[in-house]
Specification:
- It contains 7 helices and no strands.
- The model has no long low-confidence stretch (mean pLDDT about 90).
- The N and C termini lie far apart (about 45 Å).
């Protein structure tokens, strides 16, 4: 059942993004900002945590999950360090994902030769 919820929630988030691209003519960069902001805002309200518990990776892998990770990192850092945690918490919370993106991006760049668009 967990796989079904993961697929449904993650697929719905992706389908909404595709509809925004197709129907609203929003650029992918704007959708990225909207999704990260929505994930952060829903985490702030306490509504995203139940979705994460229900869908697991279906809620944490899309861009809304990145907003969730940032918000959780900031909340934890503020609880530990006070006001200064606002500035370091998001990066600390998302450090593993950012590092993985950099390392895998570098490895792919080493393995494949880029071709110009024609």
């Amino acid at each position: 059942m967990q796989y079904l919820w993961t697929f449904l929630i993650g697929g719905t988030l992706c389908a909404i993004a595709q509809l925004l691209i197709d129907k609203c003519k929003l650029t992918p960069a704007r959708i990225l900002v909207i999704y990260v902001s929505v994930g952060t805002f829903l985490t702030l309200l306490g509504w995203y945590e139940p979705l994460v518990k229900l869908a697991g990776a279906g809620a944490t892998i899309p861009l809304t999950g990145f907003g969730y990770t940032l918000a959780k990192g900031v909340a934890k850092a503020v609880a530990e360090k006070g006001f200064l945690g606002i500035f370091s918490g998001g990066l600390t919370g998302a450090a593993a994902g950012i590092t993985a993106a950099i390392v895998f991006g570098y490895l792919v760049a080493l393995l494949f030769k880029p071709k110009p668009k024609s």
